[in-house]
Please model this.
Amino acid sequence: MRGLWRSGQPRLPWRRLLLAALGVALAVALLGLLGDTVDLTLLFLGFAPSCLLVYLLPEAPVSQPSAVIGGHVVSAMVGVGAALVAPMAWWSAALVAGLATAAMAVARIIHPPAVATAVVALATGAGWQFLLLPALAAPVLIVAVALVVHRVTGVQYPAPGLMGGGRVERHPREP
Model:
């Protein structure tokens, strides 16, 4: 039971943590400015966690530009498509979350916060314009700010070898 409370995550240096927190705050502030056209609460549900990943864990595969942008767009497509044919209910939200997860996995652009984008699209009954604003515009903004912030702070982003270099054909635990 004691092991449940121990984190397997490494301790981050204070400088990196502080700069990541400032990057998240800056990106969320810019998203807030974008939010004049979209409900801010719904806008932040999926995109604020994306900021955390991109700024705090820039070397993670789920934080790379293709995963961030592609994950949100693919999930939005699933959510908007579902909004056209299904009512908002607990079962449709669960179905959309599962379908968005599967779509990202098949496309190999997994970005966990993007599942919220699919559910938000369904919950709001979003139309196809949702794909451009916010589903494409917000993650592009997050990545663009990250490219600048990480360049200034000396962090390499995107991570080397993750932009189409090394291919993983199957899960390491598969025979």
Remarks:
- DSSP finds six helices and no strands in the chain.
- The first helix runs from residue 14 to 34.
- The CA atoms of residues 36 and 58 lie 28 Å apart.
- The radius of gyration is 17 Å.
